Amino acid sequence: MDSRILKQAVALRHELHARPELSGQETWTKQRLQDFLRVNTALEITDRGAWFYARKKGHSAAPPIAFRADMDAVAMEESVPLPYASTVPGVAHKCGHDGHCAALAALALETERRENGRDVYFIFQHAEETGRGARECASLIGEKGIEEVFAFHNMSGHSRGVVGIRPGTMNCASQGLSFRFRGVPAHASLQETGKNPAFAIADLVRAIPDLTRQNTFQGAVWCTVIQVALGSENFGIAAGDGVVLLTCRGEREEDMLRLTKAVEAAAGSFAARDGLEVALSLHDVFPETANHAESVAKVRAACAGLGYPLYDMPEPMRSSEDAGHYFKAAKGALFLIHTGDRPPIHTPGYDFDDSIIEQAVTIFSALI
Ligand SMILES: [Zn+2]
Ligand SMILES: [Zn+2]
């Protein structure tokens, strides 16, 4: 990789890091990335509102390939004294998406200097953390007839530079369930005159282990209690309403949906038993991110050719990643590049490791 481009990419990453933006609010980030590409390339750039893409036209009619980076940061304080630390209170790039964007921008610069057969698309996606962005950006796949999509995620854990990948589920599917129970409040001395949702909520929480143990699932499933809130801090009033927040997760999307149905049915039956109303709303819906075997083989071959160590992950990542939306519309794969013994992503001490930018760009280049 050209050392000047690498230097520019690292500087860009630090700029993005200092001005993090939450999911769906990546206005400055999007503009800065477009400006960077306009100044340094002659690529065609198309703004799609919340996100944008750049295209390097190829000289053949072969189906296009795409690479994707996510632009959003996380609602978390920065606890490391970086010279380019976040200037936005309570928001920081704690998932390394600043690094994903810098690497993709560098790939665009590198690609522009080379001959490429097919068209190459560079997708700068919004709102990965909420699972909304890829669902919207994936429309580009059909519009442009894109054949294959690749993305990477930085990850601490293994030695720096080790690539992790697996065919099939790479990241689990998940969704947030918010149950709102509505009963009737009463004077605390006359609780029998009200309808208190405490018992339905307690029974729902107690039912979770059984609901997840049912062996009708093809892969692993989890249901996590996120929050339980009930009544108010007033000893004179028996609770009249309550809320339960759960996250359902599954190695397979189908299982996650089946688990959601089972939890919903249990909530409904406990509510009916106690004369309560219950309403369910879904949040942060993530698909299963399933890597295509053929695309995984290409990443393996690229890493072998480049001499990068690669391991086949025995299990999928439990955490979700919305890249699965692209892989429902086209072939593709997401792979990890490890950064050694650093604080994990989504923790206050985390910072993206600039030393893997070159590796990401080199692997992507080999896939074109
Ligand atoms: Zn994240
Ligand atoms: Zn991430």
Automatic annotation (TrEMBL):
Cofactors that this protein relies on: Mn(2+)
Cofactor: record remark: The Mn(2+) ion enhances activity.
Entry binding sites for Mn(2+): C95, H97, E129, H153, H346
Transmembrane segments: none
An example molecular function term from Gene Ontology annotations: hydrolase activity
Entry keyword set: Hydrolase, Manganese, Metal-binding
UniProt entry tagged with the keyword Metal-binding: yes
Classification via InterPro entries: Amidohydrolase, Bact_exopeptidase_dim_dom, Peptidase_M20
Hydrolase in keyword set: yes
Pfam family, one: Peptidase_M20
PANTHER family given in the database record: CLAN MH, FAMILY M20, PEPTIDASE T-LIKE METALLOPEPTIDASE, PEPTIDASE M20 FAMILY MEMBER
Name of the molecule in the record: Amidohydrolase family protein
Organism encoding this protein: uncultured delta proteobacterium
